[in-house]
Amino acid sequence: MKKEHIYPVVLTIAGFDGSGGAGIQADIKTISALGCYATSVLTALPVQNTCGVKAIHTIPTEIVQMQLQTIMEDIRPDAIKIGMVHSLELVRIIAEMLQEYPEIPVVFDPVMVATSGHRLIKEDTINEIVNTLFPLSTIITPNLDEAAVLTGAPIGSVDEMRLLGTKIMEKGCQHLLLKGGHLPTKELTSILFDQKGIIAEYTSEKIETNNRHGSGCTLSSAIAAYLAQGKKIPDAVNLAQQYVHEAIKEGADVAIGKGNGPLNHFFAPQQLLKRKAPL
Q: Pathway involvement (predicted)?
């Protein structure tokens, strides 16, 4: 049979989560639920469950590089999502790859701080991320803990988010979605910036549940999925925020594991989207 169609493809570059709620598993679930085809490159193998991380096995950088090359030469993605990048060498390998494909939109979720508050990556790696990956990313999606690492100042209000988001943009970002879920407020506020300033502010009801494990991974993957479908940044962010809100809402009363449970990624799954293959 003649192959006349293709799927929108999203490549996720991220770590493993055996509990299924975050990391590369959450990425693949999200990308699939939104009608896109997921490919993946594994960067690390944490040993974890819903209660926390017990150990981390690092994937050798040459194996990560081979994974990237093997996927890119066969299935060219329409968007790329990057999760935790935990070493200087890995930052450089990913940056070299991105420089070869400047036309592909990149969503970078700069995971830097654990829920416990501990730094997950060293200062020199953070500096390399800012200097090399930020300018190559279409949009970065830090939470307030990560934003505090980037600015050197804690963020305790929406007004401070507006101010310090502008400072993060000065580091060479194209777009920034600053997530305010850690604020002690009844509403969740996220702010989207570009190089000219604030584009949009998104506000939604904060759902009382501990089933939020992987929400950051899910949001960044959802943005990538919508970009792969051809949406513009503001629309992709808006749709992704709606998807995450509903995924949290639909999974809020479900008991999976003894700790922080996952979202319901498949509350309304789409079929794989088809479009005409280029001639």
A: Cofactor biosynthesis; thiamine diphosphate biosynthesis
Query: Quick check: is 33 in a domain?
Result: yes
| Inter-helix orientation angle 215-228/23-33, to 10° | 40
- The pTM score is 0.96
Q: 162-205 pLDDT, tens per residue?
A: 999 999 999 999 999 999 877 878 888 999 999 999 999 999 88
- CB count within 10 Å of CB 171 equals 15
> Is residue 72 included in any domain, yes or no?
yes
Give yes or no for a contact between 158 and 178, defined as CB atoms under 8 angstroms apart: no
Report the CATH number that the domain containing residue 68 is assigned in CATH: 3.40.1190.20
Q: What is the C-alpha to C-alpha distance for residues 268 and 247, in angstroms, rounded to an integer?
A: 9
Provide the domain count of the chain. 1
Burial class of residue 120 (count of CB atoms within 10 Å of its CB; 0-12, 13-18, 19+): middle
Domain of 34 in residue numbering reads as 7-263
